[in-house]
Amino acid sequence: MTRIIERWQLGGIFSWVSGAPLSITATNSAYTQFTGNMPVILGDFPKSIGKVTPVTNGATYFAGFTQVPDPARASVTTSQTLQTQFSNFAIADAKGNIVLANPTPGHLGTLGQRWIEGPTHVGFDVNLVKRAKIRENTDFEIRVDAINVLNTPRWQDPVTDINSPNFGRLTAADPTGSFQASDLTTGTRTFTINMRVNF
After folding, report:
1. Which domain holds residue 8?
2. For the segment 165-176, what is each residue's pLDDT rounded down to a tens digit?
3. For the chain, how far is it from start to end, CA to CA, in angstroms?
4. By CB neighbour count within 10 A (0-12 exposed, 13-18 middle, 19+ buried), where does 175 fall?
């Protein structure tokens, strides 16, 4: 009975990482060849706007906001179908009001850099070890490792270019790094059992 209840070891690691500061960009309106531009802010787009909202193929970080054609599209000529080739987007709120748009040529955007904070990351890993003596110099050991016990996805930073078709989209990756788990809306909890004889 003593051998059953003795020599147990329990360990765990809990981590919480705040999100990285991120800039919303308007890359099609680069200020110079090497310098990207920020969008023009036209409405309410608070710094606390970002929130992970799972959808069928991953998650979105800006729920309630949608991409619409940039207002400058109306000034592009329809000759030779040029207007249909105009690929700039603007961001509209749930009421359809444009809150972010591309700056006009030669102008800087008015939205500040590092405007929002990316998604936070929470992790909790646990291990349990039981050792039993077989002989004086020999031990039997069984170990169970549980990775990502809370089964939370580790979301990558969202796409922050307002002109990208994937604006606001996030994908998840396996926190153990063993494989890429893009487009999952659940975590990747794993258990590993090891047995060994120490002598």
Report:
1. 2-198
2. 899 998 765 544
3. 23
4. buried
